[in-house]
Amino acid sequence: MLRKYIIRLALSAALVLGGVAGARADDLVIDGLGKIPLGNAVTVQNGNGTDIQNFLKKGAERKGYGKTSNAAMWTLMTVPPGMNVYPEKPPYPYESMELYQLRKRDVRGVYTAIVVVLSGTPEVFFHEGNRRAEKFWSDAFREDAKRPSTLFGMPKIQLKEFQNVVDEVLKDKKGGANKVKVLTVSPWRAYKQEDGEYRWGQDAKIIMTMPNGLSFPLWVESSVFKQGNKYYLVIINGSHVAADQLGDPLLYGFYRMERSSQ
Known about the structure:
Blueprint (H helix, E strand, L loop, with lengths): L1 H15 L7 E2 L1 E4 L3 E4 L4 E5 L4 H10 L8 H10 L19 E9 L2 E12 L1 H5 L4 H9 L19 H13 L7 E14 L5 E12 L5 E13 L2 E9 L1 H16 L2 E2 L3
Antiparallel strand pairs: 1-4, 2-3, 3-11, 4-5, 5-6, 6-10, 7-8, 8-9, 9-10
Helix pairs in contact: 3-6
């Protein structure tokens, strides 16, 4: 399943979204959250309604998927600690999924990344479990909120600690002995934006190796926002080269985000 996911994700960047007659713009506009300015060098392609969107939704909502190594890996890399985007029963966070592609072109080539946006109330993200986490995240975006250096057992900034957690979590999971080598990581922490609001973010560069020896370099960046009573989880996937080209426009865009009026 993980191999199929990676292959479909890579093909979507080159083929599926490129053929969609969706809106193109210099801003990433997320309904209900706001506008993330990305500058003239980056274009945004709307991928909603494509085959890859349906593939991702159906895969994430498949019975038992939350217990696989695939789900465990993506949870570690993209989901705020304590939230659950792969529950066994509805409501399913992936039902809300929006899909976009970012593109940047220069004389050396075209760089792309996929953006997945999940949104929902606390009932969507916490209905199967962690009430302590639900309480923490309900207050984590306030100016005066306490922001600890560790979250629910997640490691501090040390790369070795994070790698140890990844190895421990994946070794007993179903779905194949996939190996994940973490090259760089900035674990979850709060970032103050230009308007005084906060977002939480994590980013990493990894090498994922399948049991047959195939390896995939991946850049994984994830941010969570709170708007009223809803959370917005913005997950970005691309290559290491795409990270070098798109990382700065995204960082600046998140900082300058213009929120929708509540």
